[in-house]
Amino acid sequence: MHLYEHHTQPILPRRHFFRRMLSHALLSASVLTLALGIGILGYHLTEGMDWLDALLNASMILGGMGPVNELHTATGKLFASFYALFSGVVFLASAGIMTAPLVHRLLHWLHLEAGTPTET
Question: From CA 23, how far away is CA 10, in angstroms rounded?
């Protein structure tokens, strides 16, 4: 089974497209939630932060703002470095997950408009 319709198939009806967008939004939210959980656990274990401070720091890093609390241990600083890099990749992946249906629909529509079927 294919995730997206083939270029020779008609464009997806709007109702199904919105369902596809919702499923991609839920997948993206799941990825972000998992990444946030990794950050919370990492700050809690490496820096001994309480859960609320760990949540705040992980959220700020994942959102691209930077840490709030000062880091005191070498392990915590290493974790924060790797988590920041990981968060950048997660952000790009989430953006890709969210825009994939839109880009596919646009390309599918442009292909139908061009009226030039390609060989498969």
Answer: 21
pTM: 0.81
Domains of the chain in sequence order: 17-114 (1.10.287.70)
CA angle at residue 7 from 106 to 92, to 5 degrees? 45
Q: Give the single-character DSSP code of 1.
A: -
Rounded Cα distance, 5 and 7, in Å: 7
Q: Do you know the residue count of the chain?
A: 120
Which amino acid belongs to residue 94? S
- The pLDDT averaged over each successive group of 10 residues in the chain (120 residues) is 71 86 95 97 97 96 90 95 96 94 83 57
